[in-house]
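Title: Request for sanity check on Attractin-like protein 1 prediction

Description:
We are preparing a figure and want to confirm that the structure record we downloaded matches what your pipeline produces today. Could someone re-run it with the sequence below and paste the raw structure tokens into this thread? We only need the token string, no images.
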Amino acid sequence: MQCTWLIDGADNRTIQLYVDDFATECGWDHVYIYDGDSVYSNLLAVYSGMVQLDKFATHNLTSLEAKSGSAYVHFYSDAAYNMTGFKITYKYHSCPSISSALNCSGNGACDPESGLCTCNAGWGGRACSEPHCPRDCSGHGECDQQRHRCRCHRGYRGSDCSQLEEEGFWELLPPSPYPPSKYVPAGRASHAAIIKGDSIWLFGGESFTPTAFVVKYDINAFL
């Protein structure tokens, strides 16, 4: 089963798309969101699986911004296993947020003319959804007020210093400062990934945007 929606904003208005709920069969049912009016436009995101439902969330999803004046949403399902689906809300000339019901995630002020948030003290990110020092560094670090992040004590890692390094840890890499078309491969779903040394290798996956079958990331380039 395949469904498509085209959101067409007059006068090239900026469109914010908020993923309020999302639960599909992981690896088989996907939603592709493009900044434009077709699958040949710039790919903003690909979602699949149990991402956000009621009080459960893998992480806060910041709204997507379509600057072309149009947004194209494509849903593919093998129709083998049904979950609750998804709810995507859109607004014109609004600010990024983790919820369509809040301006700037409830942690800042929105300027509708520029579409930018001014965050309250202690919050950052374009949607004011990122605390500078989550959980007060969990008691295992100090808050660096200048760099707006935790400096973890030895043996602890993570944005909130809650993970024991000896037990393994995970961290979110910041977005690359380079244009995606030149340095970062297009988003994909149902791919495989392994870590070897200081590199992350991605294999296969599905994407409407042409991309290499095998991609290697240098982790140190993001640190």
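Thanks, this matches our download. The first helix runs from residue 180 to 183.
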